[in-house]
Amino acid sequence: MQGKCIILSAPSGAGKTTIVKNLLQKPELKLEFSISACNRQPRPGEVDGRDYYFISTDLFKNKILDEEFVEWEEVYKDNFYGTLKSELNRIWSNNNIATFEVDVKGGLKLKRLFNNNALAIYIMPPSIEVLEKRLKNRGTEADEIIHQRLARAKFELSLAPQFDITIVNNVLEQSIEEAYHQILKFVTVS
Q1: Side-chain-facing half-sphere of 11: CA atoms under 13 Å
Q2: How far, in Å, CA of 116 to CA of 34, rounded?
Q3: Structural domains in the chain?
């Protein structure tokens, strides 16, 4: 069973989570969030089974060996994220469109896997400086982690042309509106 997918990718701090949360509130799109699995600890306010499936590193590696992931990535050293096959089957059995909020490399893997059944949107920060400010304002990571995320973001920005659409998230409301119209056009095509 394979349905349509919406893939939103961006460097950490570019605004993809906020955009996805807004899009999921549009019932006409029939989007359903694909909950990723990860082996990190939940951040304040995150809930297992809603934001991520928080699993141990050993269980994550066992699921890799058992080929239970559609895609997975070691995003940072010993920090794994992935999409479970069972999650997609759950969404498609509800006749909904799987909506991914994933890192850039994971987004490209998903686009290659689902090809024309997927719309891959890259959320671009206005600049590295703005991205750094957003990461610092979140107040959820130490300076060392922020520097790692910025170094990775510089590489990820070079991958933007491989996505179907790039949206520069300078004004959040405009970015949400643009994503909405692009997705609506994609989901209404047979």
Answers
A1: 29
A2: 18
A3: 5-187 (3.40.50.300)
8, 24 Cβ separation under 8 angstroms: no
Closest CA to 33 of 42, 20, 45, 46: 20
Distance CA 178, CA 14 (A): 15
First to last CA, the chain: 16
Q: Could you tell me the strand order of the sheet in which 69-76 lies?
A: 53-54, 37-38, 79-84, 69-76
- Candidates 179, 43, 34; CA nearest to 92 is 34
Rg (CA), the chain: 16
Q: Residue 43 has what DSSP assignment? A: P
The rounded average pLDDT for each run of 10 residues, N- to C-terminus, in the chain (190 residues) is 88 85 96 95 92 96 96 86 93 95 88 95 83 70 75 83 94 95 90
The residue with tokens 């997918």 is 5
> What pTM does this model have?
0.82
Residue 58, classed as helix, strand or coil, is helix
Answer positive or negative: Cα dihedral of 144, 145, 150, 154: positive
What is residue 73's three-state secondary structure?
Answer: strand
Query: Vertex 86, ends 82 and 91: CA angle to 5°?
Result: 100
In angstroms, the CA 81 to CA 44 distance is 18
